[in-house]
Amino acid sequence: MRRGFTLIEIIMVIVVTGILAVGTFKALSALFVRSVKARAVTELSISSQAALDQLAILLYHRIPASVIGYDPADGTLLPLSSIVSSKPVLEWIGTAEEALTKRDYSGFVDMNRSSSSTDTLFSPESVGSRVDATTRLKFGRSGNVFSDDLVRLAFAGTFDEGDDTGGDIRNAFGWHGGRSDALFAIDMGDTGEIRLSGDPAYIYEKYYLADTAYGVARGRDIDTNASCIANLPAEVKDDTLLLFYDYRPWKGESFCADPNGGGAGSVTVIAEHVGGFRAEYVNRTIRLSIDLLRPVRSSSPVHLSKQKVVF
What we know:
Radius of gyration: 28 Å
Order of helices and strands: HEEEHEHEHEEEHEEEEEEE
Strand content: 25-35%
Largest sheet: 10 strands, antiparallel
Shape: elongated
Distance between the termini: 88 Å
């Protein structure tokens, strides 16, 4: 009658148990990595979609001809429609959409009641003194919000493409030290008249009111030592995508982290782990592309790409 195990039996049990333990550990590790990757994909998907949606809304309310690509390394810029190799910074002039929604101005000109000799337009249902307190507070003044350098007028031009820049995009909107020939200072009266400071070559029926410029760039392409960057609650890395706003090129301003100076305005983080960001002009639309790359411990990184078209 046997009363115990032999040494060989004990060794075999230990070997089998070890094999099962190793297999179980690897299986659990694979499940853990798969779970981490699935969560990372979900987070990146939400983050990328939120970034593209936010940028699309801002770009939709743009002066069409004002969109440029800018390279801080050499100070060069090109209109988005002419970019062959992508520039690292995307910029555009935004319209005063909140004021338009509140019907503080109509965006259209009555050509029969306007006078080119006195540079006076008549814009139905546009009453400068009717601008509400919220909009006035946004522009930091108590008087007529449409009568200083914070707001400029640009004509829509043919096919709604914006005023004719004559191929000189830098001097059309004031980008990075240029003139702002396509933007006009205005004073809006109480009965729909808009007096222009300037003498436009052409007057069109539709116009935009510009109140701020926007810029999008990754951390690797801007001055991360700028005070506006230092004040952000999160650390800005090379792959951090940033949105700059509340600066006005027609006043000689650039975004607050421009390495070439002239910085003004504010900044916020759009997305992290951005391996690439690109904007292209295709068939009168802007196609935004974003690539996100997040490292996963003990495994290959998670990569996700998305596109969005802005009309």
